[in-house]
Write a sequence for this structure.
């Protein structure tokens, strides 16, 4: 009701001129946006990035509708925010799912179209074909140009060609004095290479494609050059790439162009194709992948659960303990310090302090017990160290939250318990804790989800190590799913397997989704329709 | 009578004892909380610079480690810090502006699909950006082939990805705050002939400043402290953020250069710790609204 009033106020107020100028401005801006978007979308589409092209096309159409239809006025306020959410939050989720069904990995990084485009740029120097005489020149910094002289004076090959990406000022090239054959002794500041020097220069010259790919010229011998030809031609009808030099046809098989004998297209990477459930069947098919993955999942749940449990109870304990102490504000400010430091910094500092040879903790333990635990090489001790660090990092948060929530509990409910003669512990268990959990419950779930994906503490402390022996992939005893995903995709040690990493990401998606849906159901989030 | 007095006295004594015990526990907990911090600061001032020989109170305190780090050419620490501050500032300003506008519309307008959009935003928000790291990497790489400024190894590309970061939860947080501002305020302004933009910018934006500060701070802190996305998207040394730089520094020469590393750690942490301590109460309010940090 209120809004219809404001809408009327808005339309009633607008003067015609303001509307026309505003509309013109809006149309111009929209036009500029559209031109850019269409350029981007078509480019991506023809490069084979069709999922991203489709997402951008959807956003562009939506933006156009929003800014052209007057009834969509409220959405104009959100156009930027919602577009960013779609592109950076929604699209990556779906794209991850798509990638999980592809072979995207080292050796299969490009789209098929990109492989074709790349190979169609390759050229070769035919054994026969129109030859042309040349003279070579060299600049002081080692670049070459060719002076070409064809027998046919009208041939377009009569030209001066430089190396690709070297500009010698094509139209007005300065040349030096000509000799008796009409060949200059210098070109654009390049000095002519004497005949005696040609044998040495030839070893460099015959690798250079003069004049760029299109219409390029390569030297074939000491005084003969020839125009190069496109080596690979793609035929969309047969879906094959044919090598013009050898006549061999290559057809796409499993993300590679191969000939009939199974030989790969020379000097070419594979391309991204969908591989069905291959990535998922690797979990089950190979015990060297499936076994460690199972360990990772179990530890992942244990790590998140123990972290939440410990941080919550220590936080609650400190909140209760200092609730009525004098100077509690100072105590709290000091206790909150670990929470304020960026987690990367504290984790790396702890890593130094626990260092097995020279860390302060190890040295102290060494002095007291004569030996100190292997915090980085023994799975159990590494887990213990990680949980301790995470407790240190995490409990101030729950201390803050709990002391806030404790103040919200009315004190008079305790008087009834006093009458019944309940002791302090019973009062805590039967009254304080349940009331607290109502307030803090959703935060516990959020904390679980956060810690389930707490990459920093796992990876920065010991890179998920110590490694699990015999595993086919880089995986360690303290790895959780997200650090495992990172190591598969970006770890570097054994190449990048984006497809398998995405498949494992889907496991995390499912876990997070289930937890969230349970939470929504529990807190009746969906039913709270009226007050959103 | 006397029994009551003694009961009272023993109760008092008990309470005092309990207070004493709690003070002792508090001291231990403060030690637990602060020891690593003090140890780091002490190490950064210890010019011997080795992890093995360090003492809590360094024999010869100096700023040598800071000087070494700030003058290092292999590890351009100043550039890293500057990169981080730049990225965090730009992302914070843009993100707050975009989020506030979106939240304003959700709070002030009624249109079809509004509720399902709000719920979808909440649902999307449960998937943190880092989960989709492979897809984000591919997204930036693909965008970069057409718009090099947003490609891999650019700070603008990284900032672009951060913009999506916590937008969903912030929209909810801000919308909730806008809802507490009475609609009568806009309506009377509307009657006076104000446009929606004037109402938003002149009238409501100042009123929602507390939540803008919270969201801005949390965004700044989150972006500044991020490791994983910056690690994936940035490659060359002068482009790194301070978090990635610190990580690489310790990965390369940890134990030999413990002192220099801790100097870097202190300098990287100081801006954030100051922000936190200055705005503790603001942030505590924001925390209970659902953002979590670990």
């Amino acid at each position: 009701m209120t809004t219809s009033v404001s809408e009327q106020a808005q339309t009633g107020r607008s003067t015609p001129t303001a509307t026309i100028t505003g509309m013109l401005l809006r149309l111009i801006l929209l036009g500029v946006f559209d031109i850019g978007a269409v350029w981007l979308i078509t480019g991506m589409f023809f490069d084979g990035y069709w999922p991203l092209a489709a997402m951008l096309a959807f956003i562009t159409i939506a933006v156009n509708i929003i800014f052209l239809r007057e009834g969509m006025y409220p959405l104009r306020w959100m156009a930027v925010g919602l577009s960013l959410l779609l592109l950076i939050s929604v699209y990556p989720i779906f794209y991850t799912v798509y990638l999980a069904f592809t072979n995207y990995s080292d050796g299969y990084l490009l789209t098929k179209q990109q492989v074709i485009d790349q190979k169609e740029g390759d050229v070769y120097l035919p054994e026969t074909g129109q030859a042309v005489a040349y003279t070579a020149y060299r600049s002081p910094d080692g670049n070459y140009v060719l002076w070409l002289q064809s027998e046919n004076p009208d041939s377009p090959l009569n030209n001066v060609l430089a190396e690709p990406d070297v500009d010698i000022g094509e139209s007005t090239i300065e040349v030096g004095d000509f000799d008796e054959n009409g060949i200059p002794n210098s070109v654009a500041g390049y000095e002519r290479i004497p005949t005696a020097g040609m044998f040495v220069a030839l070893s460099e010259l015959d690798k250079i494609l003069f004049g760029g790919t299109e219409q390029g010229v390569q030297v074939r011998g000491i005084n003969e050059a020839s125009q190069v030809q496109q080596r690979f031609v793609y035929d969309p009808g047969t879906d094959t790439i044919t090598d013009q030099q050898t006549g061999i046809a290559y057809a796409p098989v499993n993300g590679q162009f191969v000939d009939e004998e199974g030989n790969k297209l020379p000097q070419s990477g594979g391309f991204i194709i969908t591989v069905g459930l291959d990535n998922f069947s690797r979990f089950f098919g190979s015990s060297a992948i499936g076994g460690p993955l199972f360990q990772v999942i179990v530890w992942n749940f244990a790590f998140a659960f123990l972290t939440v449990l410990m941080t919550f109870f220590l936080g609650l304990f400190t909140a209760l303990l200092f609730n009525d102490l004098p100077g509690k504000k100072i105590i709290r400010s000091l206790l909150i310090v670990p929470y304020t430091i960026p987690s990367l910094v504290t984790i790396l500092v702890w890593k130094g302090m626990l260092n097995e040879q020279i860390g302060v903790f190890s040295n102290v333990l060494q002095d007291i017990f004569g030996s100190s635990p292997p915090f980085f090489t023994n799975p159990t001790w590494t887990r213990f160290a990680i949980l301790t660090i995470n407790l240190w990092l995490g409990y101030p948060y729950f201390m803050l939250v709990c002391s806030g929530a404790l103040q919200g509990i009315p004190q008079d409910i305790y008087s009834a318990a006093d009458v019944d003669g309940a002791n302090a512990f019973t009062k805590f268990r039967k009254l304080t804790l349940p009331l607290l959990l109502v307030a803090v419950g959703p935060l516990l779930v959020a904390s679980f989800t956060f810690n389930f994906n707490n990459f920093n503490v796992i990876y920065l402390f010991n890179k998920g190590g110590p490694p699990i022996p015999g595993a086919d992939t880089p995986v360690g005893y303290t790895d959780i799913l997200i650090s495992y995903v990172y190591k598969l995709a970006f770890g570097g040690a054994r190449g990048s397997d984006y497809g398998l990493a995405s498949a494992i990401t889907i496991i995390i998606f499912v876990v997070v989704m289930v937890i969230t849906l349970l939470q929504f159901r529990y807190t009746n989030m969906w039913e709270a329709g009226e007050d959103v | 009578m006397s029994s009551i007095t003694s009961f009272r006295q023993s109760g008092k004594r008990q309470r005092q004892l309990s207070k004493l015990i709690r003070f002792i526990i508090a001291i231990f907990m403060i030690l637990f909380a602060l020891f690593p911090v003090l140890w780091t600061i002490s190490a950064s001032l210890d010019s011997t610079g080795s992890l093995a020989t360090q003492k809590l109170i360094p024999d010869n305190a100096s700023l040598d480690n800071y000087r070494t780090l700030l003058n290092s050419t292999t590890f351009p620490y100043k550039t890293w810090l500057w990169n981080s501050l730049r990225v965090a500032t730009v992302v914070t300003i843009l993100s707050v502006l975009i989020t506030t506008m979106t939240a304003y519309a959700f709070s002030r307008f009624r249109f079809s699909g509004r509720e399902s959009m709000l719920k979808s935003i909440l649902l999307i928000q449960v998937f943190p950006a880092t989960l989709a790291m492979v897809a984000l990497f591919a997204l930036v790489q693909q965008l970069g082939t057409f718009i090099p400024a947003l490609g891999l190894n650019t700070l603008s590309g990284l900032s672009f990805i951060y913009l999506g970061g916590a937008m969903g939860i912030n929209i909810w947080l801000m919308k909730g705050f806008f809802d507490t501002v009475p609609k009568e305020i806009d309506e009377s302004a509307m009657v006076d002939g104000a446009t929606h933009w004037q109402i938003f910018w002149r009238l409501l934006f100042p009123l929602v400043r507390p939540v803008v500060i919270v969201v801005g701070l949390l965004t700044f802190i989150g972006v500044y402290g991020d490791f994983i996305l910056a690690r994936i998207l940035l490659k060359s040394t002068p482009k790194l953020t301070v978090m990635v730089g610190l990580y690489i520094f310790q990965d390369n020469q940890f134990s030999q250069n413990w002192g220099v590393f801790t100097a870097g750690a202190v300098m990287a942490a100081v801006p954030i710790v100051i922000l936190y301590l200055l705005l503790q109460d603001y942030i505590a309010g924001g925390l209970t609204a659902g953002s979590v940090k670990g």
Notes: Chain A touches chain B through 108 residues (CB under 8 Å). The longest strand of chain A covers residues 131-138.
